[in-house]
Design a protein that fits this description.
Number of strands: 0
Strand content: under 5%
Number of helices: 1
Largest sheet: none
Structural class: mainly alpha
Oligomer: single chain
Distance between the termini: 55 Å
Radius of gyration: 22 Å
């Protein structure tokens, strides 16, 4: 029983270490604008 609890805790610990994405991606359309990127400030 003690080993089962330790394995479950290890799985939760490893699952919580996943890297989160940094930043945001906003998709949209701007009329009368050439192809490319628009930067928000």
């Amino acid at each position: 029983m003690k080993q089962l609890v330790m394995m479950v805790m290890a799985v939760f610990l490893l699952a919580s270490c996943q890297e989160t994405p940094k930043g945001y991606v906003i998709n949209g359309v701007v009329e009368n604008m050439p192809d490319g990127k628009i930067y928000l400030k």
